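Continuing from the previous page...

OK, I double-checked the sequence for FimB/Mfa2 family fimbrial subunit against my notes and this is the correct one:
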Amino acid sequence: MNYRLTELKVLLFLLLLSAVSCQRPMYDEEDEEDGVSQTNLPLKISARSSGESQINYPAYIYAFAENGSCSASLKMTDNGPIEMKLPPARYTIVAIAGLGEEYTVPENPCLDDVIVMKENNSSSRALMLGTSTVTITNKKNISVSVTLYYAVSLVNVSLADIPSNVKKVSLQISPLYSSLSFTREYSGKDKSTEIACELESDGTWSAPPFYIFPGSGSQTVFSITLEDDSQTKTFGYTFNGKPEANVPLNIGGSYSGDVTVGGSLISGEWKDPVDVKFDFGGAGEDNSGDENPPANPDLSGLPEIGNIWNGGIVAGIENASPTGADVLLMSLDEWGGLASDVRNIIKEEEANGWYLPSEEEAKVLHDTFCGVSLDELNETIEGLQNGDPLLDIEKRYVYDFNGVIYAFGFKTSSKFLQAGSTVKYKIRLVRSVHYNAG
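Thanks. Re-ran it with the corrected sequence; updated structure tokens here:
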């Protein structure tokens, strides 16, 4: 009898031990990896917004390992710092705020996964996202601060002088992106959103403020539809620009036989204002914005992409008109150093008009010179026989993102991420030079 009692006690103990082992906390003090015990170390994380913008809590914090897998995640309910415990390694920290039922987020995300707007490619919530990198070592008191920026554009619509017999008014915007990765890369291009406007007490038609991802094309089509009891009319305009993240888009207009719409792109706190005014819907017009010059006029003598011109590598052609164009040049010279040293390294070059590329310019460099184009460019540089360094597909090059140093590579799948503090990067500068036709 005592033997059976002892056997029962041992069985109960084993069951209890098994239950406890299945209830391990998210962060253990030690993890076994390849037979080696690793001590998890505390990482303090704080989040802030750029300028005076307010973070719409809760914010969700993710720590991604170098292979892109999610090592840990936490929910931040206020602006107080939180703490994660992670094994020593290099991590990409991603903070996201403004999520709600209108956005779909993977339950166990990887760094390349995307956040999607569920319906109509618009949302009533402003999505904010920020990234940072940190290397956890055996040092104590490691901390990282993540700055969140708006990843969407705020749109306001107000239309006046609409005829009293009109029953419905709507606005359509296209093409747009519909998703955003944790690395801040947009995808799901050529989508559209259509917003219904409501009649206000003052006779104007407006829509509640809403948010969209940036435009996916170099041009944007705005369409306004007016519907009464007998017919439906749609008036459109092709705008030579696109909605951008962190830039409110205010659309206002009036109807007087034809539709005249005045639109403006007004920047947020981190960019200079850009105002755009246009008319559309006039009788006999094709609604394509012909008052603007052709986007790519035939300019004889205009330097070609990848050629050497005016002391630099031609990387892009912008603002082309019959009289000339702005040429984006990338430097033939190349520098290297830690992210913290970049400003001092390029100080002398800035005085000569060269500067760190912005994120938009960095993406132009990447899109222009990845793959076969990079090989062709390096052949051109070698042909100069000046000893100029070739672009290295295995290295990462820095750019400026709102005053913070970020980096990218010339691989097709390159990520655009904040630069690490202990990594040496390559530096290629840019400048814009105007080409005069004739």
